[in-house]
Amino acid sequence: MTASFPSLEELRTLLHQNTEKILKKSYEVKAGHIGGSVSMSQFLLPIIHYLEVSNSIDYRLVLGKGHASLGLYSILNLLNINSEPFDNYCTKQIPSFHGHTCYKAFTKLLASTGSLGHGLPIALGYSYAEKIKHSNLPTLCILGDGEMQEGTIWESLLHIFNMDVNLKVLIDYNYSIESATLDIAQSLKSSISITELSASSYSDLTKSIELISTPGPAIIMFKTTKLANVKSFESQPQWHAGIPNDAELSSMLKAISISLEE
Amino acid sequence: MRNTLLTAISHKLEKDENLIVLLGDLGVFQMREAMRKYPSRVINFGIMEQTMVGFAAGVARNGCYPILYSITPFIIDRAFEQVKIDLLYNQNPALILAAGGSYDYSTLGPTHHCQHDVSSLLSIGYPYILHPFTKDKAVSCCLDAINHRRQSFLRISSSELDLTKYCFEKVHPHTNIDGKLEPLSIELYSNKKQITSKATKAVALFGPDSVLLNDSEKYISEAQSVFEISAICEASLTSLLRQTNQFSELILLIPYEPSGIVMMLLKLISEISQKPVSLKCIYPKQEFFDHSYEKNHIFKLASKQISIF
After folding, report:
1. Residues of chain B with pLDDT > 70: what percent?
2. What's the fold here for domain A2-255?
3. Chain B contact for A59, CB < 8 A?
4. Theoretical Cys-Cys bridge with B214: which of A218, A251, B104, B303, CB 3.0 to 4.6 Å?
5. Which CATH number is associated with domain B2-156?
């Protein structure tokens, strides 16, 4: 299975290119949530590469943290899956793609999202219908750790294991500074079965592929970093939705250094 | 009306394999047989209305048609954002069956009252809102929504209204004047008594609770024509305006917050340039009725009148 996964060096190169694309696009259109887009890409890029490029595996996707649309669109563009959403991201011309996730961006995307807490119930409903139709395609739902505070997440978690659906909940645990009043990871680990993986570990990323490829429900919490791999800019709250100016963009591009251990 | 609807849905489940019923911890007893026969398609989803709506959107996205059954304020107020985003914006059709509109749960207090459900839904462009007058019409409306996979809200009332008991007779079964109106959306009744007044008056009833508003019986008895509006949509209101064009007065008896209806009518008047000479609305004012009132008592306390033009 891992033979069709990009090599460590290939992945480093792809992550570097993707981070550059996100930063440049945000600067160009003066929009976007770059912090979460980059942190999510740490694990979503290799997963989509595995599913789309390496293996042509069918699946469905919901981006609960809809504000990270720039990250998703950048990955789709970089991997030559669909360039349009990234090219037309916040161009302020019609047709364009707004700053949150639009289902028209990608045939496998199930919902337009933006209000936190909406994605997981939709993904749960879709995967439940998959189950009763005996089709059982995997549905991936990406949540942010801040989003885990929403009541619908708790409500959905009550159902996921009872319904035994082929739903993979991928948590982008970038430890948002704004959310630090609650230790989400600790709360979750005390309540439900969670697999914790590091998005900076190549072997952990390959483990996540195994989990995604195994039918049934799974919750994977990826330890990520806001604006990951843009050294000296990482984990700073202003880059949740901050837009770099000329000087900042230049510094950011020079500061990109991909930390990805074996 | 509730039990009749749930029975009809139970029968429909047999023929329609893509129908999924989600119970918000309501109707579980009435649906027990259907839950036994179709355990994967009749689910007591639990006390989590927001997630239930999102879940419904997901199953709709996968080609199924969900029916959600809950208490009106819980599904419309609490899950309003999910209704707006997950169902409407994302274009996932569902049928919401809501019990307890306006003051059906009168004695349970303001937490269970919801007189603003229709105007809330109209404010976000909800396309098809139903408040049938009888059990039979409720079943017809429900099956129509299911068969056409409509994005629908069916307001179940604890009351029924049969106008033929008020010296009225149905003019013709369907006022389907432009061929676009769905059956049962609007029906015309005429007064069997001879009205001596020269003024031509018409009354439009918006659901069976209309007759609980103050002075409603007086207005109805004085009217030459009475219209039952079972479906709130542009077609039914356009038909109402066309049929009351040049009437001396049209009185709207709206047993819920009326602003959505009034705005729709004013918009349509400007578009089709047809209207009655004067328009009046009777409706319940917004207030928290926090004593153990009976439903008809609340309507008497709450009724207000406004002359629109």
Report:
1. 95
2. Rossmann fold (3.40.50)
3. no
4. B303
5. 3.40.50.970
